[in-house]
Amino acid sequence: MHFTEITGELVESYRRDGFVVLDQALPPEQVAALNTAAEQLCRGDLGTVEGAPTIESSADVLRQFLCIHHPHKASGVALAALHAPRVVETLTAVIGPNVKAMQSMLFIKAEGRPGQAWHQDEFFIPTRDRSLTAAWIALDDATVENGCLWVLPGSHRRGVIYPDREQDDLRFDCTVEAFDFPYSDDDAVPVEVPAGSAVIFNGYLLHRSLPNTGRRGLRRALANHYMSAESLLPWHSVPDGVHVAKHDYRDIVMVAGTDPYAYKGIDDVARPHSRPDKDGGCDR
Fold it and tell me: Each residue of 128-166: pLDDT tens digit?
């Protein structure tokens, strides 16, 4: 279901289905600025992107990338997108008044490039409080042909992390997929959205994307991840190598309300880096 205003119906739809589409979440000029920033990132104009591929052709630099993690660390435009007012308004409606962001991801899916197999974001970002929420912002019109998101509505409600296994399906760029869940591909729904729209979805929602089968064209998207600021985030290792479960990941950006753990300060440890292709595995 698509929404242009934050209403009780939007919240009810989110609770029931695990996702909603927020139309016109970003204005066209902001989408254009993000696409410009994406090219700057890929060209290295905004600093080093760790793991970036060797650029074979400057004319098609975007097509040589699949995903850049943490673009907000290098791009003020991407950082501003974390605070997009209509997105944040939706987040406070479905999460609560105090919201922090911990990650941004720039996806660049050129024609012929793969998607991602069924997965849950909570598998990769272990909040475990069920507040993890993604804002997947379309920077191009996202269609079935060019590899839009597919979701399994309602698959978030059990709050279960399904098992994972290695897979070698060439349609997908990561080697890990979720399996053994009580849904089939026939239950999946494509989420086609125009540029500037945002798909807001729960961290437990099963979702995937398929390859860009278009003859020519990009399917760019910015995916930002948020959660309740009241909860700890035992994510990633810390510089001293101490077990991660004892720590609260503090490389965050507050986007709404107050931070009850502000006394801990903010870390700056994440750096923009490029996801390798399938042969290199999935580092998410």
Answer: 899 999 999 999 999 999 999 999 999 999 999 999 987
Tell how many helices (H) and how many strands (E) occur in the chain: 5, 15
Q: Can you give the pTM of this predicted structure?
A: 0.91
Give the span between the Cα atoms of 281 and 51, in whole angstroms.
12
How far is 51 from 72, CA to CA, in rounded Å? 17
**Type of residue found at 258:** T
Question: In terms of C-beta density within 10 A (0-12 exposed, 13-18 middle, 19 or more buried), how is residue 73 classed?
Answer: buried
Task: Determine the Cα–Cα distance for residues 20 and 207; give it in Å rounded to an integer.
Answer: 13
In the chain, where the domains are located: 2-275
Backbone φ and ψ for 187, nearest 5 degrees, come out as -85, -10
Fold that domain 2-275 belongs to in CATH: Jelly Rolls (2.60.120)
Q: What is the DSSP string of 59-113?
A: GGGGGG-SEEE-GGGT-HHHHHHHT-HHHHHHHHHHT-S-EEEEEEEEEEE-TT-
